Amino acid sequence: MLERFMSVVRIVAGVAFVTVGIFLLVVGRETLLAVALILFFSATTAIEVADRVEWAYASFIIPVACVLAGLGCAGLAVLFFSDPTGFEGSRYPPVVVAIVTIVGAVFFGGGGIVALVRMARSRRPS
After folding, report:
1. Is 28 left (phi over 0), alpha (psi -120 to 50) or beta?
2. Model pLDDT for residues 16-34, shown as the tens digit of each residue
3. Structural domain boundaries of the chain?
4. C-alpha distances in Å from residue 104, one per residue of 25, 57, 59, 109, 111
């Protein structure tokens, strides 16, 4: 019961962050941050939803969500490198932010692409 409740909480939180990203996009401020928020948190929400659906759907949702998360991390990396001073007040040193965004982009994005290619190859008729 607690697991289901926490799943709903994660979905609601993900939708809330996506909504904030859409709001920032509509208002016209911090466009790159808005896109990164939308991509990353729509991916995390999709993965949480995929955990609740049949495996046939989840096997497609998860790699696509990984690509979205990778794009979101890449957006944050671009945002960081375009203005590193914008992250000075954060809890972590700028070098950590740079490493995490790049590693996230490479592993989420690359892993999602590899998973999609492998899935497409395995479903191709012989």
Report:
1. left
2. 999 998 998 888 777 777 8
3. 2-123
4. 23, 24, 21, 8, 10
**Cα maximum dimension of the chain:** 56
Residue 53 φ/ψ, nearest 5 degrees: -115, 175
pTM of the model as a whole: 0.73
Please write down the long-range contacts of 117-124, taking CB distance under 8 Å and 24 or more positions apart: 119/59, 119/60, 119/63
The percent helix, strand, coil of the chain (3-state, each to 5) is 85, 0, 15
Length of the chain: 126
Q: How far apart are CA 61 and CA 123, in angstroms?
A: 16
What DSSP assignment string belongs to 67-124? HHHHHHHHHHHHHHHH-GGGGTTSSS-HHHHHHHHHHHIIIIIHHHHHHHHHHHHHHS
